[in-house]
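User: I'm preparing a small set of examples for a lab meeting where we compare how different chains pack in three dimensions. I only have the primary sequence for this one, and I'd like the structure in token form so I can line it up with the others. Please keep the answer compact; I'll paste it straight into my notes.
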Amino acid sequence: MCFSPQASFTVGAALLPAGIYCTQSAVRKNIGFVPLALVPIAFGVQQITEGFVWRGLNAADAALVERSSVVFLFFAIAFWPCWIPLSLAIAESRRPQKIALGFLAMVGLAWFGLYLPLAVDPSKWLTTEVVRHSIRYEVGELPGFAVAPRAVWRLAYLAIICGPLAMARFDPGGSRWASATGGLIIAGLFAV
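Assistant: Understood. Below is the structure token output for the 192-residue chain.
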């Protein structure tokens, strides 16, 4: 996401206190929102990890690049497709949506299977490099791509992240902030 170690560390450092505030607020107001409130903390850790990827790349430290890339990709590939629908399912009060979100969280576990070879043998599957002022994580032909092509994984990833955001609604007054977020992400993808 970020274009320098400073940007990655700054974004991560800004997200951590925001996430701590959100989590404390959720604990006080509604414990069911704690998993959702942890999202900024997880994203902050992900961004800080990418800062270490940048540092490793700038210092030609292959071990730091590999370790940091594996952690970064844990969040990017495996964590978010499960965590987003799960955190929304826990916060959701409407039973049909709660069940659908829970199902999507279970489907999201498939990305752990896609990620696992990277965690076990990153030198075989992963190449990390700078391309046009951003980091490119090339994961080769992971075994999961034999099950379904990359395009299917990408579309399913988008659906499993944005779909839950589009269906979630938390308060009795019908606030649709999550729906708006899902819609904005989808609109942004079509605008690019």
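A couple of notes for your slides: Residues 5 and 58 are 9 Å apart (CA to CA). The beta strands are 127-131, 134-138.

User: Perfect, thanks.
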